[in-house]
Amino acid sequence: MRQQFLVLHVTDERAPGWDDAIDRPLMDAWLDHRRGPDGWEPNGFRVGDPATAREIVLRDDTVSVTDGPFPEFKEWFMGVEWIEADDMDQAVELLAKHPTARIGRVMVIPALEDPEGK
């Protein structure tokens, strides 16, 4: 059975920027794989600028909302998506081909089998 993974695409100030000649073919290949017979429909999306984000904290029945950007973040999310793979090794192999691996960082987190985490 295939497993789902949450993928976070984040910036990295030390990485090179987007180079259309290099990264467009990587992105096209990624999307082609996703649409292929062993793939799945693309379901990722880009996210807003850090200034549009909010942090919400509930403590002792008091809600605190802080506007972004958040000073503790050195990197920012470029986008998120869900992928399917047989296991973590295959997820890593797939994501190593994504342009974000070159121009930023990719974090992959396995989904739990059930909401209880059992």
TrEMBL record:
Start and end residues of each YCII-related domain: 64-108
Family membership: Belongs to the YciI family.
Protein name: YciI family protein
